[in-house]
Amino acid sequence: MSTGELGNTFPHMPTVHIPQLAQGERVQSEFLVLDRAEKPNNGNPFHILTLGNSTGRIETAPVWSNQSSLVDGVERGNVVQAIGELSLYNGRGGAPRRQLMLTAPLRVIPSEQVDITSFLETVGDCTHLWDWVDKQRTTMQSQTLKNVVDLFFANDEFRVRFERTPGSTAGHHAKIGGLLLHTFEVASIARTTARTTRANQDLVFAGAMLHDIGKVEAYEVGPAGFSTTPCGLLLGHVVLGALMLERALVKLNHPVCSDGQLLELQHMILSHHGSLEFGSPVQPMTAEAEIVHWADEASAKASDMMDSIDDPANFLTGREVSDGRPWRVKRHVYRRPHDWQ
Amino acid sequence: MSTGELGNTFPHMPTVHIPQLAQGERVQSEFLVLDRAEKPNNGNPFHILTLGNSTGRIETAPVWSNQSSLVDGVERGNVVQAIGELSLYNGRGGAPRRQLMLTAPLRVIPSEQVDITSFLETVGDCTHLWDWVDKQRTTMQSQTLKNVVDLFFANDEFRVRFERTPGSTAGHHAKIGGLLLHTFEVASIARTTARTTRANQDLVFAGAMLHDIGKVEAYEVGPAGFSTTPCGLLLGHVVLGALMLERALVKLNHPVCSDGQLLELQHMILSHHGSLEFGSPVQPMTAEAEIVHWADEASAKASDMMDSIDDPANFLTGREVSDGRPWRVKRHVYRRPHDWQ
Amino acid sequence: MSTGELGNTFPHMPTVHIPQLAQGERVQSEFLVLDRAEKPNNGNPFHILTLGNSTGRIETAPVWSNQSSLVDGVERGNVVQAIGELSLYNGRGGAPRRQLMLTAPLRVIPSEQVDITSFLETVGDCTHLWDWVDKQRTTMQSQTLKNVVDLFFANDEFRVRFERTPGSTAGHHAKIGGLLLHTFEVASIARTTARTTRANQDLVFAGAMLHDIGKVEAYEVGPAGFSTTPCGLLLGHVVLGALMLERALVKLNHPVCSDGQLLELQHMILSHHGSLEFGSPVQPMTAEAEIVHWADEASAKASDMMDSIDDPANFLTGREVSDGRPWRVKRHVYRRPHDWQ
Amino acid sequence: MSTGELGNTFPHMPTVHIPQLAQGERVQSEFLVLDRAEKPNNGNPFHILTLGNSTGRIETAPVWSNQSSLVDGVERGNVVQAIGELSLYNGRGGAPRRQLMLTAPLRVIPSEQVDITSFLETVGDCTHLWDWVDKQRTTMQSQTLKNVVDLFFANDEFRVRFERTPGSTAGHHAKIGGLLLHTFEVASIARTTARTTRANQDLVFAGAMLHDIGKVEAYEVGPAGFSTTPCGLLLGHVVLGALMLERALVKLNHPVCSDGQLLELQHMILSHHGSLEFGSPVQPMTAEAEIVHWADEASAKASDMMDSIDDPANFLTGREVSDGRPWRVKRHVYRRPHDWQ
Amino acid sequence: MSTGELGNTFPHMPTVHIPQLAQGERVQSEFLVLDRAEKPNNGNPFHILTLGNSTGRIETAPVWSNQSSLVDGVERGNVVQAIGELSLYNGRGGAPRRQLMLTAPLRVIPSEQVDITSFLETVGDCTHLWDWVDKQRTTMQSQTLKNVVDLFFANDEFRVRFERTPGSTAGHHAKIGGLLLHTFEVASIARTTARTTRANQDLVFAGAMLHDIGKVEAYEVGPAGFSTTPCGLLLGHVVLGALMLERALVKLNHPVCSDGQLLELQHMILSHHGSLEFGSPVQPMTAEAEIVHWADEASAKASDMMDSIDDPANFLTGREVSDGRPWRVKRHVYRRPHDWQ
Amino acid sequence: MSTGELGNTFPHMPTVHIPQLAQGERVQSEFLVLDRAEKPNNGNPFHILTLGNSTGRIETAPVWSNQSSLVDGVERGNVVQAIGELSLYNGRGGAPRRQLMLTAPLRVIPSEQVDITSFLETVGDCTHLWDWVDKQRTTMQSQTLKNVVDLFFANDEFRVRFERTPGSTAGHHAKIGGLLLHTFEVASIARTTARTTRANQDLVFAGAMLHDIGKVEAYEVGPAGFSTTPCGLLLGHVVLGALMLERALVKLNHPVCSDGQLLELQHMILSHHGSLEFGSPVQPMTAEAEIVHWADEASAKASDMMDSIDDPANFLTGREVSDGRPWRVKRHVYRRPHDWQ
To answer: What is the ipTM of this complex?
Structure first.
């Protein structure tokens, strides 16, 4: 996502590509402070800051009590200029892990000069996701469903908004581009499920693409990161999605689908949480709606599990089972000590 | 599945391929009586028998009160010789549907002369399912996981038992071959989910193949159709699966995988129901176990939904929504009146 | 409700006002057969038919086995011409109760000549309910809310449809006019609650009037009585209500309320079931939405309890507690043997 | 409520009527410290104390770190002498809000010199509530029910205890007079519900008046505010209410009501929580018990919602939706930015 | 239990001791018809009547269609004179089972000449249960608790009523004497639990003896067997027990225990269902109350399981697992085919 | 439990028998720091350390701010050398309670010199528990069941491991020897239940002895106290128990019991949590399994209740009801102020 439109605000310095930083490489760049955690460390406490930009996130090396001036006054939500050097330490499974050793105090950028969005974690370049989506659209056999999907996904303005929307505000896929990634996962899983179980693949694909469009209006980026809009709270993204589909159709001069077809698509959106207690006012009544629902679960839950296992903060004591129950999954998780060659 | 091993028992006559019967075609063959239902019909009740063989099932035309000698003494579970003619009537959505008009009284074959299994509904020829499984086995990159999967799926005796086992006794995939079909669906969905979410595809495939092997010992074919064995009830198919994996490894003279690897595979089997209240003694602790769980849900629930929508008995009043709440899904289902071209 | 529009169909004979029938009065009229129940009666079974017209319902005297020709071939859902005489028997608490003693066989009217709606139980004359509603509308202080309410309740066509809609298909207020009666109850209870707790009375009144408008499209009268429409099942009456409000506003050339105000009203409709597990996609977020929710509960549950206690079929053994657990309330109910003077 | 009985204890100074304080008005009075909260404020933390007396509560202006001597050693539960000045700041919806700017250190009054009750928040003057109750008692048509209600509500000693009892210890109506206010609300809502649904209004009124009398023995005022008595915990206020009614009747020399009538009234008290999981050992079995239950819910839940929306602490970021999920209602609440003229 | 008080009503003939009937023995006696069941039997249906007297119950041999005159007009709840002969058939595990082969038509005794209670199944002679109870009372070390227990269990009138009361109306221990047997089981299990866990044994014994005394007023014997009284439904046996304890103490001129002690005992009674959703208005707050609760569960659930396994009707197909899920335990049960020598 | 095997590690000094310490007695010994709690104390905070050894635990006297050097740098999990004197203070019910007044700074022993296990709280000498177990084994009448029980309980190595295992890691019986104590309680309660309800006592005893053997592999002692092993998390102690029984039998050259008998025993282990939502993959299907389940509940829940009531930390304000809801039981508990003589 380009940030050029923001003129002379930060980031000023070139964005460092965090995942590609090599050992010993010098870092001088702006980052958003995503977290500032104090670790008890058996009585010798230290701080670790999590710094992020659009390419990913990295933890600082522990900042001990006698180095506290490096991070004084720095809070979660600040954008800071950081100077340091990439170092390694032995992390999960003995594999080296990278950390940023600060060599100068962080400098806080005044918030009014900052475009927070450009510092939020993203899923990275979305080109391959869009390519997949666009290829699937091309291969749809139902022209009606293609037309409905294109109402949104052939609309450049919608694509920009959609790509900026996270999958949730603080749960699964809570990243810029997260909704697109999640939608890709759901569509991909759902298509395979449809093919395997002989359901209508085009309809499942359309339902998967549309199921979470309501999040475009339900979520926003605020000073403190992602949050839910008033209409997101008052109506819910599920109902919002059904309303957005209706409004998009009302705007046109010609009918793209019949009333009955609209009804079925709105049903797919409304039922995609699967059951009443999870916020769907109706349960799935078609195989295609059912399939989209389970693909949605699979994407969200697998993502939560992957994130929980990949987060070294859950394995500080070095065991193969997590120290506690990571909040995303509310149970212990397991980091296999063997490989599967 | 061959029934030649059963010697001179029934079926005697050539098996009629039910799905290929043409209008007006004369039928003379043995069938298992899968159901005998009385329909109230506004005060003029009639009976409809559901007859099945290994190729599928067909309902008789209504047998009115004055024709009751055609079906006197015939009960669910009998194998009968039936003589009749295929006729059509207008069914769902106006499309013609086929029924068997009986032209002579059914003759009940003594149960001791019958091989019930050869009359149970099957998923049909399983060759393509086995081909898919075997191709996937070939392309596994982890030799360890391939060796574990081959303990069962390269064993001809196991393959025969596995192919004969239904996916459940009366729920989803309750057919000969149903467990194989279900396992294929789970493995297929799970692999796509793993690829999409970057989990270990080989491990997910192995977990999917093994997740329900306990059903081979938990289910059996009895005189009244599928039922659960005592050990299936006392231990549950989930624990049985973990025990079967352990026993298969114990029998070998050489280790196929490490203790830790066995632990992870047993965990995948034990956790595949996802949560305690659904009978898993442990919840999934890895992304791969989580993925197998959701693929299992997707396969079972989509299958139930497809079967509910495809069953004309749920739409007797001709509405696009089902008359009641089909027992498989416990909610109304929707049979779309439009198509999606 | 006028039935004049139905031309020369039945009812032909003047409608008998069931609640005003006197002992010994001769009855000759058409009725809808609402129920046909067989009572075991310690081995001497008999039938009781429940006959209804728009004024109410009455049970026949027991039809013993040797009188079965009186009711042969008559089924639930038929409209019949009945000839008989009103008699009394000792019912609940010793008070005399009325029954219709048939003196000639019932004659079934062919269904195509019948306007079922005109035979369905109604809540009776709705004039006082409309009067109350219209008086409340007049006294609203918020012109904006009055305008929104008038979109529906000052529209004659909507009033006709609303008055014909039941409160549910088979539960509380399942009568022609039931939705109007229920809405009156909710609005009345909610206004008092708002006044008592100092919430906005106009807003609560508007929310109460609108909360169930979706039922106008969600329910219909079919040959077998009330049922749910496809869109009622696929979207639910809760979401349908929010859509109907939006569509009514879209149709106008001028704005009646702001987007934010529409949002709040749609929220009241969407949240009126109070919690997710009861089908509201969002929980109430304002005091007024909360109040409408509880008034809705109070009206529905008190109605169910009154109906259960008033139904003598629940007290056949003559005890002060019901014989079983009436289905409406799923618990024993109590018919006090004392009075409270 | 008079506090004259407490002799020369505090409060010494005239009670300030908090809701009527004008901008710039000087305050010098005693208050109970109801809360002492630290607000993080982006790294510049401050304290806000909530001070209360019988007329209401007011927050202090923020006490910054460099002013900490103003509040040193002051804790929740202390009674303090405060000197300050009423100031305004822009609060909810831009409307000015009042705060107390301390101009001298708070002085803690030794706890043994303090009558805590006289500092607890109250619902204010209860005269109009008692007037309403007494007027309703007068208009009851059932002399029996009036006699039962009068056992408590014509008894001056009981009235004093009842008026001092909160509606809960820390939830809805947790104020001196709160039980009376809650009982008024329940009785008022329940009467309207009874009139609307044609239930027995006198019985509903009596049930509403008696439903929570057990709280008089279940709750007490301790040094730390309201708490539950041992018998309140061991028996519960629901059972205590039924016992209190029995004991009041046993004390009389003449019967006020029959055993059957007592049974019905005890049932109303015991069932007023509506279902087992909420602490009612029995579910309502009469329409009147059902109505009292729902009126109880409506009063409690509307009160919680009003309090949550009226509490500016829930809207510190200035949005129209609450910052978090207020504990009283466990969901976001909405403070409309528009009015409804 | 003596039935002498009933004068010249039935039973007239000597009571046959059902458990001691030998093969071929002739039977001529009165029995209560406890059940009349029709068994489908693969198209050749038959009836089996369950006959009972105070010593037990026995099924008739199958009464085939061509013998129906033997049982014509006989219904559940009748007392009949039966003439027949005891025969054996191979039942569970091959062990012979006894049945009554009718040799003459049953004769129905007019209900007004019958003392139903004397025909209801009983737990048999209760002498050893009373002996155990009385011995325990003697060995109590707390005189206070002994005095409280003796209020009921040293009162002959109460003992007679208690002994006649079933443990439930249709569930566990639903027999004359069932409440005594259940109370014995609970007291016995609870004492061991107290001794093992070092809780107060006397208090646990007292709590166990008192926990279900409310059933004496909550249950009654009606023409159709056991049922719940109005006060049993309106207050529940849990609250009734607490009220009975209070009333018994109020009647005395001298205090037997302090108010605090009464409170603790009432708490034990009120909390013995363990949690709110099972009808206890309060949860156990002492170890002794907790122990009585779990002993109550153990007695009820073990009894239900024993009855389900011992009932041959659950094993008609001869498998070691039950044919279905017996209603008492709602799951399959297992009748071991091996012994444990 | 002997710690001699640990050579010259700590404890060096003789173990002080904490429960027998007399007032004024001087203490000089090593202890494990089980907890370090800060108490707010109305603004004058202090620390209390909980010190433990194998004989029990004792709290230090409050360590005020000006004494903080006594405990500087001491953390939960350290083993310390402590010097102090036993003093008394008035605790629960006015009874004197003991505390350790530190007279010198604690000295932390380096962790590598410490055998943590020997400092963990234990249930004390287990001789009488083993004696009871061994006596019960001797009196079993079923040789088969005795042989199975002896596989574990006649095996010295297993006895050592079993005795070291806690009943849970942080819940009920979380002590060295806790599993043995819990097993003794379950076996004792279950035997009485079996005798009382006429179930198979030998089988119930065997099931009780085996039900938790999986905990031997599921729990371990780590540097931070008890924790769950990876296999304990991945398989659960319930399934581990069934696996351990199978493995023990597989190791033998001769069969100790039949396959069917093994099945029944594995079922008892697998079902002992009673229902799916509590982690049993199957529900009890025999009376004996049901009895073991309820005895398990009774032991665990009574233990939790006893511990909650005995913990003075729950009654700091001196009331007879606990200040809050102790975490073990999640409800208020009651410490009776009276006795029961």
So the answer is: 0.82
